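Below sits my pick:
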Amino acid sequence: MTAVCTSNSTMSTTTPTPHFKSAIITGAGGGLGSALAKQLLDSGCKVALLDTATNRALTDAMQQKYGDLATCFDADVRDAKALQSVAQAWMARHGAPDLVIANAGIAGGFDTLYAEDMEVLQRMLDINLRGVVHTFQPFLQAMLDDGRATGAAKSLVGIASIAGWRGMPGNGAYCASKAALIAYLQALRAELRGTPVHVHTVSPGYLRTAMTAANTFAMPGLMDADTAAQTLINKVQGGSEKIVLPPHIGWLQRALSLLPDQWFDHLLRGQPRKPREHQNNTKQNN
């Protein structure tokens, strides 16, 4: 089920011509999603702001600020039919988007020892993996058709994580969901190679957002969401297919991966872990 809000007001300031004229963002109510939305709206891009109803006040605030450039939808990415309804409503007014960013996701601790954590694993896969597919699917054919007709390049952006590069103790469900997402995006990129639609895999490290605010462990390379958003948009515009935020965290992660597994596991086991959901509520940003 979806709900939509729009405004008849318009922005009073002059904005530069955007590289992207039309964009869809899930998880737009906070964190990286909100930062991405603001960057695009500031450029004059029309943006669909998708988030759950619990974050409606956050997307409403952006819509009030940016007027007709912003349209907000209540939509849970686990609901494929809801995303199809959003796509139909958006494209009826604006046509095929230039950019779709599947940003919605959740994180939290997980321990196979506890039966109640099985539901946590399922929910992470439903949101972090299936939610991306649900986001892309209803726009893809229209983006292909429009790109072929106009010669315009289109972009599908999946927000994965460096956590998907290697499993980390106490974080198995999140790591598994992001590893699966990276593999899905690799497959989709190969399938769409040579078409107007380009696939971009984004692997952030630690970003300064509500999702990381409760972390009690070291977060090397912690990056502001606004800086990450600007870097991401610039790299997508430049055609980068694999984007790491910040770049040096990717180099550090790759260097650590050269260690023997036993050493790597020993190093990580000594680090504090994310609390399990039943110790501290899992945070959701979709």
About this structure: Residues 6-17, 281-286 have pLDDT under 50 and may be disordered. The CA atoms of residues 97 and 204 lie 24 Å apart.
